[in-house]
Amino acid sequence: MEHSQTQRARSTMPDSANAMNNWFNEGRALCVANVQGKGRGVIANVAFREHDVIESTPAWGFDGADAALVDQTRAFEYYFVRNDRDNNTEKIKGYLVFGLISIVNHSSTPNTRIFWEDRDTGPWACIAAIRDISPGEELTHRYTNVSSYNPNIVFVD
User: Fold this and answer.
1) For 46-148, CATH number?
2) Of 122, 43, 123, whose CA–CA distance to 80 is shortest?
C-alpha cells in the first residue's frame, strides 16, 4: 500500500468509542443501539417475516439457590424464566442467555416471542417474529416475570 493510501485509510478509520459498536453491527441482521427511554435495545437491520427465527443461542440454567444469589445482582434483569415449564416443580429456576436475546426490551405489544429448545448441548433460547418486522424497528418481547422486578422499575412500551 502506498504511503498516501495508508494515510487515507487511517484518516477514515473512526477513533470514537462507537468504533467497536459500528464494527459489531456492520453487515449483521441485528444491531445494538440506544433506544430512547429504554437504554440499549436490539434493532433489525433487515426485514423479518412472521415466524422467522431471528436468533438461537445457548443458555445456562441455574437452581433455586443460585437464583437467590442472582436475584440480588443486576444480572436479575437479564435472566430468563421458561414459560414452557412448571417453575414450581422444576429444579432449574432461571437461565442466563448468551446472545442478543438477553437485551431485547419488554413490550406489552411485542413483535417477537421467546421459545426454548432442549438440545444435546443443553438448553437454547430462540426468538421468532410474531409479525413482520421492518429494518430499523426495535425487537421486543413480553417479559414473563415482570411482577418479580423491583416496583421502582418502569417498563416503557
Assistant:
1) 2.170.270.10
2) 123
Q: Whole-prediction pTM value?
A: 0.77
Report in angstroms the alpha-carbon separations of 111 from 15, 33, 70. Answer: 35, 17, 28
* Residue 65 pLDDT greater than 50, yes or no: yes
In whole angstroms, how far apart are CA 131 and each of 48, 82, 140? 8, 22, 11
Pairing of strands 92-97, 79-80: antiparallel
Q: How far is CA 84 from CA 19, 87, 118, in A?
A: 40, 9, 11
Listed by start position, the domains of the chain span: 46-148
pLDDT tens, position by position, 96-149: 999 999 999 989 899 999 999 999 999 999 999 999 999 999 999 987 765 565
Which of 43, 86, 95, 71 is closest to 148 using CA atoms? Answer: 71
pLDDT tens readout for residues 142-156: 877 655 656 666 666
Helix (H) or strand (E) holding 129: strand 122-129
Residues in the chain: 157
Q: What residues are paired with 33 via a beta bridge?
A: 41
